[in-house]
Write a structure and sequence with these properties.
The structure holds three protein chains of three kinds. Chain A has helices at about 10-25, 30-50, 70-100, 105-115. Chain A is mainly α. Classes of the chains: A mainly alpha, B mainly alpha, C mainly alpha. At the A-C interface, helix 1, helix 2, helix 3 and helix 4 of A face helix 5, helix 6 and helix 22 of C.
Chain lengths: ~120, ~130, ~525
Amino acid sequence: MTTGILDGSIIAIGLFGIGIYGLLARRNIIKTVMSFGIIQAALILFFLNINYDAAAEPPIGDAALMTDPFPQALMITAIVIGVAVTAVGLTMFISLYHHYGSTNWSKIVRMRKEED
Amino acid sequence: MPKHSMLLKVTMGAIYPFIIVFGIYIILNGHLSPGGGFQGGAILSSVFIIQYFTTYEKTISISALNKLEKILYLALLIFATIFIFAFRDSIPLYLKPYYLIAMNILIGIKVACGLSVVFYRFVLFESR
Amino acid sequence: MALYWFVVLPLIIALVSYLSHSRQTKIIVLLIQVAFFILSIVNFIDVRFHGTKLEVVGGYDMGIGIALKADLFSSVMVSLTIFLFSCMLLYNYKKSYVNHLFLFLFIALQGLISGIFLSNDLFNIYVMIEVSTIVVTILIVFKKDSKSIYDGIVYLFTNLASMTLFLFGIGYIYKIFGTTDLTLLSERLPLVEDSRTLILPFVLLITAVDLKSAIMPLFSWLPKAHGTASAPSIISAILSGLYVKGGVYLFIRITNLFHPVFDEMLIFMIFGFLTAVIGWVFALSQTDIKLILAYSTVSQIGVIVFGLSLDSTYGYWGAIYHILNHAIFKSTLFLTAGIIVDEYHTRDIREIRGVFKRMPYVSIASIFAILGITGAPLFNGNFSKNLIHAGMRDSFLFELAFFIINMGTVLIFIKYAQMLGGHSKKRFHIAWNQKIVILLLAATCFLGGVFGPMIMSVMFDFDVYVSASNYFSKFFIYLATLLVGFLFYRYVYLRMRLFTKIQELELTFNQIIMAIVIFFTGFLSMMMIQFG
């Protein structure tokens, strides 16, 4: 069902742009973490679409046209790294929230300067 | 989760059997289509998270999940070692899918336990 | 010995030392570290006399397995890593916060940094950098102080953002070439007919690597992470000395990879010069000891990148020797600053006086390091800066640029060294293990300068002849620079209001991401204009 324009790569680039916009323009720390999740999903979609062919078969035994297992293996590692990074980021956010009481980047910078 | 949320309870309660079936489907078909142990395990762990949202009276003990995960890890290592040493030269072709399915199931349940433990540690120790 | 042991063995040692709760773990780990250092020297000798080692893990063919490559530069960096980590472990032997978790993370970090230097596969580099980012973040906030958590979270998120760009670049490269192995890529790169398809992956990779090595618009994360309030001083030393050099190492690799197609030396020369100047301007306006040292790291990285982009052999080897020198003297400075802060209980440089009378060993080590970093003759900084100078073309503009950079470094360390004078009442004796470490590092500064040409010809097979009259003329130039710097500091600097205004500048997280996006779009549009 793949048409010319709506390829998986184009949607991945669009999602990546949305994620970068979320990192740029939103001042809530939770929205930053969510934007990182969107960017990781976009990258996984991009990688899985590299050698995609709807008629390909898995590379076990003999087949005429085989899928490429390399991006899938890389993406399993990337998913695990994404989970670990989200967990560490959220833990540090909880400590930050307990100390400063705010979830806003600018307010925390201001409170930190007053502490000095 | 202090508040009753009727909306979450009803919707999640209606959906989660389908999520379990979908997760088991992805685990069992790991050798034929994209998916496999890790991805199916991640989907199955979302069932544990939903269970926390719907019925917050009953919570799961983290130590039981930890123990189950370690037992499954040992089973994984033993299974792989036995298989490699039984068929030293080459695994016959009819046995390969069963080996892959068994490894996928073990990895899937292990990953589901692991990710649920991460979620539960966040939730149960939030008032730190 | 196979190369993958350099990466795997520290992880195994870390795991075993975490699980065993005996009292002798620290000393056993130290002895294993010393043996490991000897093994890395053996590996370096092997590479030096038998050529580059290239192995594929698991014995597969070249494009199928993960490849590890050890050439001269990376084996020297691996030896430097193990040497610095052994010194830091000896330094930290009796500290109270060194429990099992700290040792586990610290030794695992050594394996990961060796993995960055040795791996030959782009995705392998990505995994190593991501895991070491998480480990370094946890080590920065290890003492759970309130201020350091903000620094840690900014460090984590900015490095993560740059690594997503790196992964995107790897995706494009795999799509075009079908492999991510660096040796195979350098073979397949000239086959591309239209070089415009390679612009986008090149810009993505260079943006990510620029943030890791703290080049001009993207260095805001560095002072926060390296100079944060309650980070252990060995972590700041390892970060400043070794981890940003990993970023510079990747910069060298990627520009070497794309060299037949894109030649962007002029732009990086300008970036290096701007980084060096902005580094010392910011350093002069800080009052916190560790922030001064962190900004001076930025300035020295500018010098290194400037030397690398000069497109001559003298400049290249001078920059590489400067990487080694900077690791040693910056570690010495951070360790001594840590001891001083612990004793005086303040980090403000205006309040610390009389270090020389109170802690003579610490101040001797600081003086050696300061002489090294400002380029005094017979010290190692002088030799590497001479090599970079010899690689420059003979024009007045380059001489002026080099003079400005050197003057800036001298000014920073005149400001830093004023805490050595003055009076103090009591003596403070530092522990013997710390004394051994800082004196060893300071002696390495001195020996690296005296035996500089010999080290270069033994290690890198690069013969440089330095005559005695050269030393004398450099000595007079150095004294003249010191005098001018001292006069400038005394009469001009203390009257300028500009520096107090610069101290207030701080970028929030959104502004850092905006800087990354502006850099990316600017570089991309410049490449597209240049290549049509």
